[in-house]
Amino acid sequence: MGQRLEHEDILQLFRAHPGTLLSGEEISRKLGVSRTAVWKKIRHLRSLGYAIEALPSRGYRLTSVPDVLLAEEVRAGLKTRIIGRELVFFDETDSTNLRARELGDSGHPEGTVVIADRQTAGKGRLGRYWASPPAVNLYTSILLRPPILPYDGPQLTFLSAVAVARAVAEVSGLRPLVKWPNDVLLNGRKVAGLLNEMNAETEGVRYIVLGIGVNLNMRPEQFPDDLRYPATSLVIETGREVSRLAFARSLYRHLDSLYGEFLTSGFPPVIRAWEALCDLIGRDVEVDCQSRLIRGRVEGLDNDGGLLVRTEDVLEKILAGDVRPLERTVPG
Length: 332
Ligand code: BT5
Description:
The protein is elongated, with a radius of gyration of 23 Å. With 332 residues, the protein is α+β, with helices and mostly antiparallel strands. The longest helix has 22 residues. It contains nine helices and 14 strands. It binds biotinyl-5-AMP. Biotinyl-5-AMP binds next to helix 5, strand 5, strand 8 and strand 9.
């Protein structure tokens, strides 16, 4: 389980009185701890990068917060309805998806969010791994309990891709694109990975975990050597560091509004949003489906997330495969 950070109580107090000087005595009374314990908490917060002004015989004031993804920091600026109802933060864990599934199994509410500063066994799809160095990126898993049939579970993958793309656009000013089925790209390189896992029975979904890893301030030397696809990060693309906190809040806000819309209107709004971010719609592609190669023009997404490709004879629905655009013919 996530640790409840020992200094969260004092942070909450500072936040409840923004910009105000709080005397050591007042803090110790409100938290029910000794003056020495207050001083220790302040020292600990400073060691984490919080700037706390101390004015002799007047008190303490929080003047700035560090860009660490402490649950309390994320929560403080979050104005969402569902996403982030509960936040669990780990300095280190094997995989946030595993933690979120445990929380799902033990009955935690939908909207519970797990965040880790680093993962020691970050998971990709099909047993692949996700490089998760500390202090630079966002690794998060969101627990949802949508009232849908298991068959419709993959719809949430498209929803998370749209939310990630919107957050990337908002924070970087760049124009990310989505690639079917579940990649988010900047300038043709993968900037985020999505791993959504479902626990279901025939009649319905118990929960879905949306696993999201976004490369924010990761530098070229931190990428693994054996990348399957070209990869990038926001700092590589923009040349400036982004606030992990600001990104996390933006992501949860976009997820919250998309999921709210999904609950009331179903998949169609997600399809439209996803198609608007996909540059292959209307283009000629080749799809490698292992057993056969399909050539045709992409028409869009089907209701269950299949890719619709019009070949010379039929409208094919692709459920799995590798899509490549065919070279545009150069005129003349
Ligand atoms: C994915 O798999 O793209 C899904 C990644 C999901 C990661 C998140 S982090 C939070 C949550 N908790 C988890 O444990 N997982 C989720 P896939 O399409 O299979 O891509 C994996 C491949 O991408 C690897 O085989 C590498 O080649 C490459 N790769 C590994 N780390 C990368 C990184 N940080 N950025 C870009 N590519 C990476």
